[in-house]
Amino acid sequence: MRIDIITVLPELLKSPFDASILKRAQDKGLVEVNIHNLRDYSTNKHKNVDDYAFGGGAGMVMSIEPIHNCITKLKQERDYDEVIYMAPDGEEFSQKLANQLSLVKNIIILCGHYKGVDERVREHLITREISIGNYVLSGGELAAAVVADAVIRLLPGVLNDETSALSDSFQDGLISPPVYTRPAEYNGWKVPEILLGGNQKLIDEWRHQKSLERTEKRRPGINKN
Q1: Whole-number Cα distances in Å, 68 to 9, 79, 168
Q2: Where are the alpha helices (DSSP H) in 160-223?
Q3: Measuring CA to CA, which residue among 88, 89, 106, 103 is closest to residue 33?
Q4: Fewer Cβ neighbours under 10 Å: the N or C end of the chain?
């Protein structure tokens, strides 16, 4: 898989992709992540990538020209399955969507800034708009990193135990059950006896029941979407 991220602040994306699972995935050649500085595609001598909004109003708007230049150049080099814009009003990101994106080959992610992008970008250049929640960030970089992380960890070979991702919260529409490790008793707090008995069938039934209870309590509408 290849992920190209377009941003006005590339330094914000260095750390997330240079450590832990995301770094190992790149080192193994399982994913290629490229960060593109949008200012490199500006034809303005000052390398500006924003301008005032027609009709007035507070805040600046990301200009269409450098975005179009960057996306056009990338698409001349290869085909892309999705050109994603990280936007507060996009479709809400979910595990289901992460699963879908993990099956494609090439993705472009455009990080928004200021008051957003020229609407013509959304109308003509973007294939999908994604939001990670109903709130506004200073820019789309952190949101892009969240999406990339959720997708990359699903790629075959990224996790040491490939069954681990299958038991994550939300994979089956349920929240994961509680987990425990040694010691079996600490400070008077005990691990449930059923987990210590070795009967895997009963353990699995217990875990499933706890998942149902947690989901009903914490995300009661998750299976209705």
Answers
A1: 18, 16, 38
A2: 200-218
A3: 106
A4: C
